[in-house]
Amino acid sequence: MTALHWILFAISAILIGLVMLQESKNDVKNTFSGEKSDLFKNQKQRGPELFMARLTLGFALIFGLFAILATVL
């Protein structure tokens, strides 16, 4: 494994941790059971939630970039 693969592995571990730390918007079982659900309702994120969402998006983009670089190189 090259250094690029190790960096990709570290980024993926951080990304998994960030996703696990985020709070769920709604219970998934209510979405598929036919009950009224606000899962797809526009919900504003503020404060730490917004920071975590943006940080996760940033790491997801970095992960995609490094995955492409690891494949090409």
From TrEMBL:
Family label: Belongs to the SecG family.
MF annotations from Gene Ontology: protein-transporting ATPase activity
Protein name from the UniProt record: Protein-export membrane protein SecG
Membrane topology: Multi-pass membrane protein
InterPro entries: SecG (IPR004692)
Native organism: Hujiaoplasma nucleasis
Keywords: Cell membrane, Membrane, Protein transport, Translocation, Transmembrane, Transmembrane helix, Transport
Keyword Thylakoid found: no
Compartments reported by the entry: Cell membrane; Membrane
NCBIfam families the record matches: secG (TIGR00810)
Function recorded in the entry: Involved in protein export. Participates in an early event of protein translocation.
Assigned GO CC terms: plasma membrane
Predominant location category: membrane
Highest taxon in the source lineage: Bacteria
One of the GO biological process terms: protein secretion
Record flagged with keyword Protein transport: yes
Lineage: Bacteria, Bacillati, Mycoplasmatota, Mollicutes, Candidatus Izemoplasmatales
Membrane-crossing residue ranges in chain numbering: 6-22, 51-72
